[in-house]
């Protein structure tokens, strides 16, 4: 068996998608992504669910088609506005780290994890980096499935899950 060494040129840089929701855990994931992948192209993704989708789900309107609203209506959506602010926060954190990045706000019509995975494939990411809050265990831990866990199991690509700062190893 021979080992082949492949040199990657700048035009083939690694694309790292960083899932960012503004939390301390997401900021920690961004810091680790910048440290672990210093030559990579970071693509920061913030997923949001439009208020119209939340309202339709809340009233339990079965069979009612979800309508995508764009333009002025989407910009008036407070969830969209929060996602944009979150993306701007991520860009500021990346700038403090001396890292250039792309920032994307993606609509999450089904779930946050699926929006992250879809964005990773659309951006042709090589790896996804995400933080996690880690459940405290017990019944809640058994019944809940985290975004990071779903990304890990459904991405079809490498996923780096960064634990919270206060997480102590077992």
UniProtKB/TrEMBL annotation:
Organism: Corynebacterium choanae
Record-linked SUPFAM superfamilies: Adenine nucleotide alpha hydrolases-like (SSF52402)
Gene3D superfamilies linked: HUPs
UspA domain mapped to chain residues: 16-163
Protein name (Swiss-Prot/TrEMBL): Universal stress protein family protein
Similarity section: Belongs to the universal stress protein A family.
Domain of life per record: Bacteria
């Amino acid at each position: 068996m021979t080992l082949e060494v492949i040199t990657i040129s700048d035009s083939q840089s690694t694309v790292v998608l960083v899932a960012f929701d503004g939390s301390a855990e997401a900021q920690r994931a961004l810091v680790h992504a910048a440290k672990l992948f210093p030559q990579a192209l970071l693509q920061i993704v913030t997923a949001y669910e439009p208020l119209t989708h939340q309202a339709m789900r809340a009233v339990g309107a079965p069979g009612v088609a979800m309508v995508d609203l764009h333009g002025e209506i989407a910009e008036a959506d407070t969830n969209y506005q929060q996602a944009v602010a979150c993306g701007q926060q991520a860009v500021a954190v990346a700038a403090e780290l001396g890292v250039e990045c792309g920032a994307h706000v993606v609509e999450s019509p089904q779930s946050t994890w699926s929006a992250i995975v879809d964005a990773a494939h659309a951006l042709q990411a090589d790896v996804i980096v995400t933080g996690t809050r880690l459940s405290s265990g017990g019944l809640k831990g058994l019944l809940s499935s985290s975004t990071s866990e779903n990304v890990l199991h459904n991405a079809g690509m490498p996923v780096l899950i960064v634990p919270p700062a206060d997480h102590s190893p077992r």
